[in-house]
Design a protein that fits this description.
The complex is a heterodimer. By secondary structure, chain A is an alpha/beta fold. Helix content of chain A is 45%, strand content 16%. Chain A has a single domain (6-236), classed as Rossmann fold (3-Layer(aba) Sandwich). Chain A has 7 helices and 7 strands. The radius of gyration of chain A is 17 Å and the shape is globular. The two termini of chain A are 31 Å apart. Chain B is mostly helical. Chain B has one domain (3-73): Non-ribosomal Peptide Synthetase Peptidyl Carrier Protein, Chain A, CATH 1.10.1200. Chain B is built from 3 helices and no strands. Chain B has helices at residues 3-13, 34-48, 61-73. In chain B, helix 1 packs across helix 2. At the A-B interface, helix 4 of A face helix 2 of B.
Chain lengths: 242, 74
């Protein structure tokens, strides 16, 4: 159980992030939900966590791509919760397109949010983990980062980058009791994958269906408690990237 | 001057006596690696009540003292 622990989840207002925040709260963790724009959705995730599990929950608006904004948000979370034990870097965006036609800003936006956003959070949360003498970082990567996906060079690059980030941070802070792992979800039914509902790849999923956000949250729950696991990339993909 | 505060925090974290810590002592010879320095700084922040954002490597206790002084004045 995670009683007495505080978890911060980026992109926590909906989809996989909301499912992870709710799951960690069900295990007793207090949760800080970071969202970019959807305040009502983030607030409703917090309300559900408080009502269903009696934990403390607060939402924070923050563009994770903004180094200074992340620094300020981490300071606020420290003030509100006192300590931090779990960080889930889930915030992610897509700007799909063929590499030959992709706008520079579409490449930058995706890498800035998905990859640099995770770095920004790690950068400002590690001092809090060091104070707690423990920490667990879970980066939400993607099978796109493992096997690539046509039309998603920016997204795949950011998600592959997260795996390198995960392994370096895992090595750097293992001696301090801080673990860092990644989850590589496949096709999970969320707003983000709606555009992919007719993707021919879906027919190639060995388990024969799309995944649910709660099934990714189960993997996050496992990693939150797996004290001998660090630097791992856990696929939750119905077998598509094996 | 933050030398005394730094020496106190180092002594608490290591087996080194405060009296044997000099401004020219390097963190390496005090048995403090770069990762330990990050934790040392946090203890130091608590001790002197100043937020220290170390954005470069410092080799000696005296260097760290000067770095903090420059940040506090700046």
């Amino acid at each position: 159980m995670l009683n007495g622990k505080t978890a911060v989840v980026t992109g926590g207002s909906r989809g996989i992030g909301a499912a992870i925040a709710y799951k960690l709260a069900s295990m007793g963790a207090d949760v800080a939900v970071i969202y970019a724009g959807n305040r009502d959705a983030a607030e409703s995730v917090c309300e559900k966590c408080k009502e269903d599990f009696g934990v403390k929950a607060r939402s924070y608006v923050c563009d994770v791509a903004d180094f200074t904004a992340v620094k300020d948000t981490a300071a606020k979370i420290k003030e509100d919760f006192g300590a931090l034990h779990i960080l889930v870097n889930n915030a992610g965006v897509t700007r799909d397109g063929l590499a030959a036609m992709m706008k520079e800003e579409d490449f930058d936006r995706v890498v800035d949010t998905n990859l640099k956003g995770a770095f920004n959070m790690i950068r400002h949360c590690i001092p809090l983990f060091l104070r707690s003498r423990e920490g667990c970082i879970i980066n939400i990567s993607s099978v796109s980062g493992l096997i690539g996906n046509a039309g998603q060079c920016n997204y795949s690059a950011s998600k592959a980058g997260l795996i390198g980030l995960t392994k370096s941070v895992a090595k750097e802070y293992a001696a301090k009791g801080i673990r860092c792992n990644a989850i590589a979800p496949g096709f999970i039914r969320t707003d983000m994958t709606e555009a992919h509902s007719d993707n021919p790849l879906l027919a190639m999923i060995p388990l024969g269906r799309m995944g649910e956000a709660e099934e990714v949250a189960d993997a996050a729950a496992y990693l939150a408690e797996a004290r001998y696991v660090t630097g791992e990339v856990l696929r939750v993909d119905g077998g598509i990237a094996m | 001057m933050y030398f005394n505060a730094i020496a106190k925090v180092i002594a608490e974290r290591t087996d080194v006596e405060v009296s044997s810590i000099k401004p020219e002592s390097t963190f390496a010879e005090l048995g403090i690696d770069s990762l330990d320095t990050v934790e040392l700084l946090m203890s130091l922040e608590d001790e002197i009540g100043v937020e220290i954002e170390l954005d470069r490597k410092v080799e000696t206790v005296g260097d760290l003292d000067k770095f903090i002084q420059s940040k506090v004045q700046g």
